[in-house]
Amino acid sequence: MERTAVDVDDALEPMCFSDDDPLTRFLYKAHTVLLYTLAVGSMLPVVVYVVFFVPSIDDVPDYTIDIAAFQGLNNATLGHTVSPTFDLTVHVENRQFIKAWCHNHGEVVISYSGVALAWGRVPGFCLHRRSAANFTVVPWGKKVHLSDYLRKRLTTEWHTGTAKVNVDMKLHYYPNYHFVPIIMSRPGTLSISQELMLGDTREIDINVL
What we know:
Helix content: 10-25%
Number of helices: 2
Low-confidence stretches: 178-184, 201-209
Strand content: 25-35%
Oligomer: single chain
Mean pLDDT: 76
Radius of gyration: 35 Å
Shape: rod-shaped
């Protein structure tokens, strides 16, 4: 068997592409587009999760307050004092998808025309994700002074069905979301203020001296 000599000039040369070659430019652009597509695709689930599921510091539940009952506004004495008690129903709705909501504690003040009638502490409360519930707060006052003007005004508004009180509640909460950056999960205070009607005229009888 004879071996045939191979001319060096006849050997295959490596394929080289010039920057001016259309195929080179096409492959480079395709490679770049593919890399960007993969990068965006890998980040998309994270972006969707952060935008739609991770709450920020302002994503707190909705709180509404109602007066379920009260007493003690009809026990005015010669000293112009009252010792009222209010039974408040607080409705909370947590609309977060993945995390429960908890507030640690709070304070509540019920006032009439700038005078605090009753006050008290708000107990800690936790609510499961995507749920709603009620809890009760019972603030009370002791020997609250009412001037003649306020007593007469309250009596008039009561008989005309326009008597209102202001309920101011502050709720303090610790970070509810430990897996997000600290700027989004720092503790805070939620302030709630509502003006509420006193309700049925049969519940009060104010003695004006």
